[in-house]
Amino acid sequence: MPNKVVKQLHLMGTVIDITVVGNKAEEVVEKTVRMLEYYEKMFSANDDTSELMKINFNAGKTDTKVSPELYNLISLGKYHSMKDDSFLNIAIGPLIKEWKIGFEGALVPSKEVIESLLRKTNPEKIILSPNTHSIYLEDKQMEIDLGALAKGFITDKVVEYYKQQDITSAILNLGGNVVVYGESHHPDGYFRVGIQHPTEPRSHCLVTIQAKNESIVTSGIYERTLTVGKTIYHHIINPKTGYPIETDVVSLTIISKQSVDGEIWTTRLFGKNTKEIISIVNQLDGIECVVIDKTNKVFTSDMIKTKLM
User: Fold this and answer.
1) Which of 39, 103, 158, 199 lies most in the core, judged by the most C-beta atoms within 10 Å?
2) Nearest by Cα to 218 from 231, 229, 209
3) Which residues have a Cβ under 8 Å from the Cβ of 279 and sit 6 or more positions away?
4) What does this protein's record comment on cofactor binding (predicted)?
5) 63-110 confidence digits (pLDDT tens)
6) What is the pLDDT of residues 54-65, one digit of tens each?
7) Residue numbering of the annotated binding site
8) How many CB atoms lie within 10 A of CB 294?
9) pLDDT in tens, 185-197
10) CA 264 to CA 87: how far, in whole Å?
11) Regarding the domain delimited by 47-146+176-308, which CATH topology (the fold level of the hierarchy) does it fall under?
12) Across the strands, what pairs with 237?
């Protein structure tokens, strides 16, 4: 009988849940934790000693040689940040640090501060040197923030490791970024993954999806907020305005094979209206979505309808 090991820990500013079923489950879970800690040390924008922060500290001064994995993720992030209609911008660091929504010291910056910081968020000024794996930020005060991509990249690395191990199944949940691997205990082999109800306490699901060897990434404006007077500010910042995104969408879930694709498209699309999101996703290969609007009405892309429960 395969072992089942369940572990919960706090990393990357969120709660992480790991479940592994298999003959080497305990060993696999321990290795998973070490991998998560290793990549957090590489990608964190909240740890001054991380590899990413070396780039940010050298902004406007000199280029920084980095590991191939960090270089590749920044390169991928810049590519998607440069798209005209994208709400993903990995150069958004200065604005994230100023608002601090979800962290101690959160505040609403002045209009003047936001306008000043917007000038420091141009992804074109992230200079990539592929031959040396070096990154240079052209302006002082520029900061890369990989919060929109890192969890997906890390999840995919962990799944690559799982594929080499003698395990039956695994569920990895990095604070709303879920991946299911292998066969579930259900007769059909599919896992049941719930999508959080936006206005109910945690673990209350509005929609459930059947999934197998897939990533389910959800981004929602209810996750981290700042209340000032009667105004509620959420943590998803519009890189074009410097303020929280104004949208009829409260939750966007992307279902994909690669978790990093889920991260990319939840961020690229969060800011568009429901109709636009569905239209774009229906044209993407291997990408599906579930959208919840402010009335808690559920919309989906065409191909995912058969997987809803």
Assistant:
1) 39
2) 209
3) none
4) Magnesium. Can also use manganese.
5) 999 999 999 999 999 999 999 999 999 999 999 999 998 888 899 999
6) 999 999 999 999
7) 148, 267
8) 14
9) 999 999 999 999 9
10) 10
11) T-fold (3.10.520)
12) 244
**Long-range CB contact pairs, 30-36, < 8 A, 24+:** 31/161, 32/158, 32/161, 32/172, 33/7, 33/9, 35/154, 35/157, 35/158, 35/161, 36/9, 36/11, 36/12, 36/154, 36/158
Q: Residue 288 and residue 108: Cα distance in Å, rounded?
A: 35
**Chain centroid offset of residue 88 CA:** 11
Across residues 18-23, what is the average pLDDT? Answer: 96
Q: What is the DSSP letter of 118?
A: H
pLDDT at residue 306, rounded to an integer: 87
Contact 291, 274 (CB under 8 A): yes
3-class DSSP state for residue 196?
strand
The model carries a pTM of 0.94
What one-character-per-residue DSSP string does 198-261 give?
TTS-TT-EEEEEEESSEEEEEEETTSSEEEETTEEEES-B-TTTSSBPP-SEEEEEEEESSHHH
Say how far apart CA 194 and CA 128 lie, in whole Å.
39
* Pairing outcome for strands 231-234 and 167-174: unpaired
Here the tokens at position 294 are: 């402010």
Task: Indicate the annotated binding residues for Mg(2+).
Answer: 148, 267
Sheet with 288-293, side-by-side order of all strands:
3-11, 14-22, 167-174, 177-182, 214-220, 249-256, 288-293, 298-300
Give yes or no for a contact between 183 and 197, defined as CB atoms under 8 angstroms apart. Answer: no
